[in-house]
Amino acid sequence: MVVKFNNELHTVFSMVHRTPGNLRGFVQVKMRNLRNGSQIEHRFASEDKIEKIALDEQEMEFLYEDGDTYYFMNIENYEQLGFSSDTLGDAVKYLIPNLKIKIEFYEGRAVGVDLPATVPMKILEVEPGLKGATVSNVGKPAKMETGLIVQVPAFINEGEVIMVSTIDGSYQQRA
């Protein structure tokens, strides 16, 4: 959810409603400023008003990366747009060619990215797998095609394609 707080746009990524003892209820919110990326926590009283911002959402396909700019194609009109890594934030770790994502716009400016829950990624570097290590719970670091480091089970080998969670960057399953 994107809200307007102190005349700035913020995306809410954590919200908890509390009613402590004999006090009035409040909502504890963790927000990220869309302009500069800073995180803040704020406590809203039950009578506080806040403006929810409506965003335009467009489905786009990731094409390629050129330095600090990432290029996408609008699926509907085939228009190509470039976004900086500052605009995309942590999403750049999960961008693989031909990945379809939703980009959120506010007044013609990109403000957010909605990634799928999991992304198939190819492993570039990992220690060799161990024979008979199918049951153990031991993980090993693997370098993905985007440079992301993911802890994978011991039986995963180099060159395999796995599903990686875009929420926390964890291994989910083989693809």
Overview features:
mainly beta; SH3 type barrels; 3 domains; 2% helix
Gist of the model:
Helices cover 2% and strands 55% of the residues.
Would you kindly provide a written description of the structure presented here, covering whatever features stand out?
This protein has 175 residues and is an all-beta fold. It folds into three domains: 51 residues, Roll (SH3 type barrels); 59 residues, Nucleic acid-binding proteins (OB fold (Dihydrolipoamide Acetyltransferase, E2P), Beta Barrel); 57 residues, Beta Barrel (OB fold (Dihydrolipoamide Acetyltransferase, E2P)), CATH 2.40.50.140. It is built from one helix and 15 strands; from the N terminus they run E-E-E-E-E-E-E-E-H-E-E-E-E-E-E-E. Strands 4-3-2-1-5 form a five-stranded antiparallel β-sheet, with no helix packed on it. Strand 14 and strand 15 form a beta hairpin. The longest helix has 4 residues. The chain is flat and about 60 Å long. The mean pLDDT is 80.
